[in-house]
């Protein structure tokens, strides 16, 4: 039997196994649970993402800066869209006009929860009929703007809101199914006694359904629930499908209507550090439609169209934050690596105790590594980005650090605390870089400040 000759890549891999020194001189893929698939570590210590060098990006666009791998976002949209479901991206994770246009191109729907997110989507020409308006405290102005724009669906979150919805409108009722997604309490929304939704067990959801049906201009098209965020287990979603299908059956009996849509929200977890639990999307895609079909058959219901609302799972891993080390301070028991960003570009460590990894970019550091604290520039002792980053012991001022998995809830949660300007979002795609959001300047800050 004859074998084909080995490829150049196979020869390189074999050589790398035989000669450790050769291994270090090869470009390497980075752990793709936390880096975008396109990330490659070069022998020089630089890393390319989307074919663009991070060192060059830092020089060209400054630091701190968010980098977004466009193909990584598209790949996640497509992974979700391969399911037989409507996929509505949760705009709160990251939204700008270019992002909205990408989402439209990928056939996604969009969940917005404020006038700002709605205005951004509309300014990008995102189809209004594919927009869902969320919020536990929608203002009259937001409801009016949504009606004028022809927003597809409003997700009802309180009984009083039902009277305030303007014009003929498709609505969903947001149900609190009483399911614990086992996540941080700040982002757990499926459980009873928090501010979102209408309780299934307490009868508030049934009352809201009856109330919507009393307003002839409103068309009740389905139910919604959102269990919370950064959920790694599929089981909670199965239970949500069971409980909501039973409720659909109850509505069919009581009101003689079949609702065509079932939206089970987002919340799918990503890994922030190697080894973190990740949401099992293939498992979810295999399991959930089956559970839905089974439950509908059991209740004699026509199977509703499933909607999912992932935010984090679409953009988190596509994003990287670049920081410049400003100073390194050796305390009595630990080393503080202070960078030019911090709490204002990433409040997540302080808000949720989120943990990240960091990597030295642009040079090969000392072989010996140690855990040290990467801290921000803000005037608070709690402004610690990573309390236990493992970095080369010779880390020094001027070094460039990359923190992966920062594409979701980073730019969108950035503030101007200490009047620090917000970083740009630079999109990389096929070897080219272009800002999607430019860096904020002091002039921007002063423009809002009425002298
Ligand atoms: N649908 C609704 C109604 C939501 O409220 C949310 C998120 C999502 C979908 C999307 O969830 P995702 O798939 O992105 O987990 N700032 C926090 C996350 C807050 C999420 C709020 N709602 C964080 O940085 O972890």
From TrEMBL:
Describe the reaction catalysed, as an equation.
meso-2,6-diaminopimelate + H(+) = L-lysine + CO2
Gene Ontology MF annotations? diaminopimelate decarboxylase activity; pyridoxal phosphate binding
Q: Which cofactor does it need?
A: pyridoxal 5'-phosphate
CDD domains registered for this protein in UniProt:
PLPDE_III_DapDC (cd06828)
Q: Which PROSITE patterns match?
A: ODR_DC_2_1
Could you say which EC number(s) this protein's record lists?
A: 4.1.1.20
A GO biological process of this protein is: lysine biosynthetic process via diaminopimelate
Q: Which domain of life is it from?
A: Bacteria
Q: In which pathway does it act?
A: Amino-acid biosynthesis; L-lysine biosynthesis via DAP pathway; L-lysine from DL-2,6-diaminopimelate: step 1/1
Which positions fall inside the Orn/DAP/Arg decarboxylase 2 N-terminal domain? 73-316
- What positions are modified (N6-(pyridoxal phosphate)lysine)? 92
Q: Which family does it belong to?
A: Belongs to the Orn/Lys/Arg decarboxylase class-II family. LysA subfamily.
Described purpose of this protein according to its UniProt entry: Specifically catalyzes the decarboxylation of meso-diaminopimelate (meso-DAP) to L-lysine.
HAMAP family assigned to the protein according to its UniProt record, in alphabetical order = LysA
What's the protein called, per UniProt?
A: Diaminopimelate decarboxylase
In its UniProt entry, the species of origin is given as Saccharopolyspora shandongensis
Origin organism lineage: Bacteria, Bacillati, Actinomycetota, Actinomycetes, Pseudonocardiales
Gene name per UniProt: lysA
């Amino acid at each position: 039997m004859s074998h084909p000759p080995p490829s150049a890549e196979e020869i390189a891999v074999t050589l790398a196994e035989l000669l450790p020194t050769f291994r270090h001189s090869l470009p390497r893929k980075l752990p793709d649970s936390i880096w975008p698939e396109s990330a490659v570590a070069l022998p020089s210590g630089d890393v390319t993402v989307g074919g663009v060098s991070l060192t060059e990006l830092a020089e060209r666009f400054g630091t701190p800066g968010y980098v977004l791998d466009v193909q990584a976002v598209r790949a996640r949209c497509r992974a979700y869209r391969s399911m037989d479901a409507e996929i509505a991206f949760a705009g709160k994770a990251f939204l700008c006009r270019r992002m909205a246009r990408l989402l439209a191109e990928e056939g996604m729907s969009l969940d917005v929860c404020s006038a700002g997110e709605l205005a951004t989507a509309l300014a990008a020409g995102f189809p209004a009929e594919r927009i869902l308006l969320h919020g536990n405290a929608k203002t009259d102005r937001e409801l009016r703007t949504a009606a004028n724009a022809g927003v597809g669906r409003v997700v009802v979150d309180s009984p009083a809101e039902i009277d305030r919805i303007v014009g003929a409108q498709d609505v969903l009722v947001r149900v609190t199914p009483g399911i614990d997604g086992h996540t941080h309490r700040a982002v757990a929304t499926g459980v009873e006694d928090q501010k979102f939704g209408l309780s299934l067990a307490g009868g508030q959801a049934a009352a809201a359904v009856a109330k919507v049906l009393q307003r002839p201009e409103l068309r009740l098209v389905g139910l919604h629930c959102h269990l919370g965020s950064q959920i790694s287990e599929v089981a909670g979603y199965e239970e949500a499908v069971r409980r909501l299908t039973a409720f659909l059956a109850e509505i069919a009996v009581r009101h003689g209507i079949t609702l065509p849509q079932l939206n089970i929200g987002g919340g799918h977890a990503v890994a922030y550090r190697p080894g973190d639990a990740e949401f099992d999307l293939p498992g979810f895609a295999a399991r959930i439609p089956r559970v839905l079909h089974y439950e509908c058959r059991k209740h004699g219901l026509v199977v509703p169209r499933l909607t999912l609302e992932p935010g984090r799972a679409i953009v988190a891993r596509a994003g990287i934050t670049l920081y410049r080390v400003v100073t390194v301070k050796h305390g009595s028991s630990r080393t503080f690596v202070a960078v030019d960003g911090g709490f204002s570009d990433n409040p997540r460590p302080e808000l949720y105790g989120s943990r990240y990894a960091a990597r030295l970019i642009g040079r090969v550091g000392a072989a010996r590594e140690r855990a040290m604290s990467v801290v921000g520039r803000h005037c608070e002792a709690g402004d610690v980005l990573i309390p236990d980053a493992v970095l080369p012991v010779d880390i020094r001022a001027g070094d460039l650090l990359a923190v992966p998995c920062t594409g979701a809830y980073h730019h969108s949660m950035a503030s101007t605390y200490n009047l620090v300007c917000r970083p740009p979002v630079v999109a990389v795609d096929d070897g080219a870089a272009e800002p999607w959001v430019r860096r904020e300047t002091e002039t921007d800050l002063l423009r809002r400040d009425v002298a």
